[in-house]
């Protein structure tokens, strides 16, 4: 059986990773979403085990100690990480797995899975990114400014990715990512 592809989708906070990922999952039956663990509080409508595994700081630290995370990072005061078991099981079953994670986490995954497909999602502009974050209505202005400073630093790391996709329209961004996945499945090294 052919092993699945690990697809890592990341980019700055507010770029629309979650929205694009949800749209991709609706369109693509062969794609499995990897749910991340986090210590941040759930936003309105978020469900434990669906959007994230919401953990206390103590629970998350135990996962780190037991080496049960593929990657983890602290971002704006909260921890985020990818549980190992789920990802490895799905890849072994021949399923493609998509990780929707922050840039710090993507760089750690790249160390462990250099053959993963790394896609950087970009906003049409930094002004648009700030408007999207502000539009959530969940962040105070000083947090928005902090997120924007981090976004500029993260965009500078784009050179470590295989692909860059601008999220100008969700459908177009999804089509571009679907094309990348198809092309990766057609590579000679994937089919050897």
TrEMBL record:
Keyword ATP-binding (UniProt): yes
PANTHER family found in the cross-reference section: GUANYLATE KINASE (PTHR23117:SF13), GUANYLATE KINASE-RELATED (PTHR23117)
Family, as annotated: Belongs to the guanylate kinase family.
Subcellular location: Cytoplasm
InterPro entries: GK/Ca_channel_bsu, Guanylate_kin-like_dom, Guanylate_kinase, Guanylate_kinase_CS, P-loop_NTPase
Gene: gmk
Domain of life: Bacteria
Annotated function: Essential for recycling GMP and indirectly, cGMP.
Name of the protein in its database record: Guanylate kinase
Residue intervals of the Guanylate kinase-like domain: 4-182
A Pfam family per the record: Guanylate_kin
Molecular function as annotated in GO: ATP binding; GMP kinase activity
Keyword entries, A-Z: ATP-binding, Cytoplasm, Kinase, Nucleotide-binding, Transferase
């Amino acid at each position: 059986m052919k092993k699945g592809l690990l697809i890592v989708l990341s980019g700055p906070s507010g770029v629309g990773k979650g929205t694009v990922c949800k749209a991709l999952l609706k369109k693509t039956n062969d794609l499995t979403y990897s749910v991340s663990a986090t210590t941040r509080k759930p936003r309105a409508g978020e469900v434990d085990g669906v959007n994230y595994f919401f953990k206390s700081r103590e629970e998350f630290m135990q996962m780190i100690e037991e080496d049960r995370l593929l990657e983890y990072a602290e971002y704006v005061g909260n921890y985020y990480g990818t549980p190992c078991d789920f990802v490895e099981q799905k890849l072994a079953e021949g399923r493609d797995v998509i990780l929707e994670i922050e840039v710090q986490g993507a760089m750690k995954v790249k160390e462990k899975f250099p053959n993963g497909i790394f896609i950087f999602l970009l906003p049409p502009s930094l002004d648009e990114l700030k408007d999207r974050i502000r539009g959530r209505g969940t962040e105070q202005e000083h947090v928005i400014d902090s997120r924007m400073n981090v976004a500029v630093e993260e965009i500078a790391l784009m050179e470590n990715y295989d692909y860059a996709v601008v999220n100008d329209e969700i459908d177009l961004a999804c089509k571009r990512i679907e094309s990348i996945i198809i092309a990766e499945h057609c590579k000679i090294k994937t089919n050897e």
